[in-house]
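Q: what sequence does this backbone want?
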């Protein structure tokens, strides 16, 4: 088929493809190169999604804005010096990094904040569940799993992958437990993570291909509930005669006492404790968050000609029931679903127009 094509034109085609690849890379990292948002910009944008967690949003948006501004400045400078070679530019950047540790109860928005932030910045995001890791136990394999995921999230583009965000969920589950039971694997998994977070050159094997991938510019965010950490911190505060809110006095020492490796915790210099969501927060999540489950249902019902409305009392009741589930904002999904199931099942009915759900309606449906 290609017999008629001369070696010369084949070479030209190869060059063109190479050029196109380069342009695609540039296009893909353009988001980072042109990044110029301030912490306040990001926080404001985040407010439309994440309700409450004012301190958390401030800390995360500041860390993220600084991280990508530094990368952007370094890339711009390096691109001039390296004539557009992004990989070389990335290798030459020496900007320090402030990985983030988020502590807080389940369903309060730890993962959600990080995901939203990465969406707002426009970089690749991967979510890794650390509980899976402690079960598997073989550390080397696990760390490279994360890199493969990151590469996929970046559409196979290593330059893009190298500037993404990796969220390490349930990091507290790899703590070495000395109280309830002895778990020796936790330590090994934590040691394995050290290398990954440190960003040494890694090689990812995909099929026959070997792709080298550095994590030096990847922003790591770790999250966990850290049950009973509060008790540890308060005890230490009492011992040292320190007063105030434990959330403002958390030290690496406390996390070490919890069972985390000091070296690993040291690599997460930015630490923040999230709040338990209040009834009012849960109500606001339903009515104001752009990803609200309730707003999604209201939208769905519109296509059936129904305008769903919940009275303020109904919203309070739903929020209170969700609170009782003890799963944070996740509880809203199941409660709202239970309230609306019968009505949704009955569609299409003969009725169209306004459909007001009030307090007693909610109570009746939930029993
Ligand atoms: N503060 C919040 N504002 C708006 N929505 C929220 C908030 N917190 C949680 N949600 C909603 O609840 C879902 C679950 O929250 P998320 O995944 O962030 O929990 P988490 O804090 O990471 O909990 P876990 O410790 O169980 O992983 C989110 O996808 C989001 O829809
Ligand atoms: Mg989570």
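A:
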């Amino acid at each position: 088929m290609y017999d008629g094509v001369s070696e010369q034109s084949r070479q030209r085609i190869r060059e063109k493809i190479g050029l196109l690849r380069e342009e695609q890379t540039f296009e893909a990292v353009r988001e980072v190169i042109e990044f110029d948002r301030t912490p306040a910009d990001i926080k404001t944008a985040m407010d439309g999604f994440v309700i409450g967690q004012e301190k958390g949003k401030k800390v995360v948006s500041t860390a993220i804005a600084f991280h990508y501004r530094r990368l952007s400045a370094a890339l711009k400078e390096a691109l001039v010096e390296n004539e557009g070679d992004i990989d070389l530019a990335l290798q030459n950047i020496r900007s320090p990094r402030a990985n983030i540790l988020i502590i807080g109860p389940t369903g309060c928005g730890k993962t959600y904040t990080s995901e939203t932030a990465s969406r707002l910045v426009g970089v690749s995001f991967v979510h890794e569940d650390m509980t899976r890791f402690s079960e598997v136990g073989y550390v080397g394999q696990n760390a490279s799993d994360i890199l493969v995921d990151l590469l996929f999230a970046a559409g196979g583009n290593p330059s893009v992958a190298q500037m993404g965000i990796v969220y390490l969920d349930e990091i507290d589950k790899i703590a070495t437990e000395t109280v309830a039971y002895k778990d020796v694997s936790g330590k090994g998994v934590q040691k394995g993570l050290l290398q990954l977070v440190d960003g040494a050159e890694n090689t990812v094997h995909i099929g026959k291909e070997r792709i080298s991938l550095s994590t030096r510019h990847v922003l790591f965010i770790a999250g966990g509930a850290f049950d009973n950490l509060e008790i540890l911190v308060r005890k230490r505060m009492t011992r040292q005669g320190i007063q105030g809110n434990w959330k403002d006095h958390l030290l690496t020492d406390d996390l070490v006492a919890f069972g985390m490796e000091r070296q690993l915790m040291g690599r997460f210099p930015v630490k923040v404790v999230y709040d338990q969501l209040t009834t009012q927060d849960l109500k606001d999540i339903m009515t104001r968050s752009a990803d609200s489950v309730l707003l999604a249902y209201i939208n769905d019902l519109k296509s059936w000609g129904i305008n769903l409305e919940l009275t303020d009392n109904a919203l309070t009741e739903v929020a209170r029931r969700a609170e009782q589930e003890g799963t944070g904002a996740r509880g809203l999904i199941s409660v709202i679903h239970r309230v609306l199931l019968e009505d949704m099942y009955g569609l299409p009915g003969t009725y169209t127009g306004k459909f007001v759900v009030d307090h007693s309606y909610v109570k009746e449906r939930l029993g």
